[in-house]
Design brief:
Layout: H1 8-27, E1 32-43, E2 54-55, H2 58-65, E3 72-84, E4 88-92, E5 97-102, E6 108-115, E7 118-126, E8 132-139, E9 142-149
Antiparallel strand pairs: 1-3, 1-9, 2-3, 4-5, 5-6, 6-7, 8-9
Length: 156
Amino acid sequence: MLKLALPINRWIYLFVLAVFSSSVALSAPEEKHTYYVQLIRGNDEDQPAVPGAKAIGPKLSKSLHAVFRWKNYWEISRQEVSVAAGAKAKVVLSKERTVEIDLSQRNKRTVTAFSDRKPVGSTTQQAGNAMTIIGADRDVRSAWFVVVRRDKPQIE
């Protein structure tokens, strides 16, 4: 006769507890964060840098003009992405520009910008509503910027 180390009612209790725990874990919704990722070009031209580009909104314009020298800033592309806490997401903005948003560290957000698949800048900050801006010179007449933000961008 087989003897169990625990009485049968404890086995049933452990089984029910295990089933309940796994169903709670499976049904718990993942916390996701929505980000808006913009590819911006700065230049001194009065017309959009590329067909379909639009002048950026006043909030971003104020942030960029406070630091950089360009007369105008144009939104080349925009993506909306949801990233689960503890996960990473890559966003393709153009054939040359990609961004990775990394939420794998608790309460931290790391944003890495890539140009032609090579990392060109990375920053880690507290997770929250702060805007992240990473950029570089495109040529002598313009620069590009990647903007990652929580608030929906406005266009002028």
